[in-house]
Every structure is written in structure tokens, then in C-alpha cells.
Amino acid sequence: MTVAGITFSDAEGGFVLESATGTGQLDDPFVVVERITGKGEAALSVSGLTPAFGNRVGTAHLAGFALVKVVRNATTEAWRDFPVELQERRGDQSPYGDGLSFAQAPAAIRSIRSDRFAAAQMFDEPRDVVLFHDGMVAPGETVTLRIIVTDNTPAARFYVVQRRIQPTASLSPPRRVARTRRADG
């Protein structure tokens, strides 16, 4: 799907791209609606981010846009963490030198947030990852993620890779202990 000069694709598999709208500006972000169907990675392929496209988010980067991902959980498992990673070459981490980032800079407008995860942790090095956590997306539910993507050396194509992490262990909630009152005092 091509919108405002950027092409979004689900060709890498693991999810279905349902729609894409917007211009990529902060007040009119690209809104990509997806349905994740598998357990593995889901890599959104993005092309068209060039110097001619420009920077639509006001950071000091050569090119950039605001992105809202609306992701439906069409799997049978709840998502408790949701890492999103940028990759210039599929399967390789995005190092500092490739210019691709989630608006990495001292005074950048990061604007990273989610409606179902209370926290988001940024990792700029050695790879560009946002880990959304402290929440849950049950099967059939939808999560909305807001990110900024920038690039100082735009490549023909890059990837927004999503993973759903299942906990390896968890603690049961603390049990309430009934307190009894002694009759004698």
C-alpha cells in the first residue's frame, strides 16, 4: 500500500496489512492497521523514505515521519511485551552508523507511547528498539503504538520488526490471608 509517497508492505509475512493512511506529519501520522496472525516476527517493509520525502516531524534528521501502528492480536496467546525494532537490512540490527532510528538525538521529539502498555523503554545502541511493556493485549484485542522514524542516510527499504514475547515464568498474585480474631482479646 502506498500513501503520501511511502510504501508499506506485509510481504515478509507473519501479519496482514489491512490499511495505511495519513501523511506522516505529527498532526497527521501514517496510520498502519495490521492483524498479526503468527507467533514469529512480523516485519513491516517500508520504502520511499528519501531526502526528497523530507522530514515531516521537525527533528534535525534528513528524513522522518510519525507512525501509528494499530495492531490486532489474531493469535491465541496474550502479548505481555511488544518490542519494535528498526532494521535497514532484514535480520541485521540497526547500528548507530546507518542513520536509521526512533528520532535518536539529544533534543528529538520521540513521542513514543501505547494505549495498552504503560511503559516504553528505548534502546538506541547497539540496535534501535522500543520495548513496550507493563500491559497486555489479549487475543482479539487491539493495541495502538505511536513512534517516530527518522533516517539521516535513507536506504531504499527498511523494516519495522515486531516480536511478541511470551513470559517464561510468572508469579501468581499474592494470596490474601484471612485474619481471625481471637475471642479472648
Automatic annotation (TrEMBL):
Q: Which domain of life is it from?
A: Bacteria
Name of this chain's protein = Uncharacterized protein
Output the lineage of the source organism: Bacteria, Pseudomonadati, Pseudomonadota, Alphaproteobacteria, Rhodospirillales
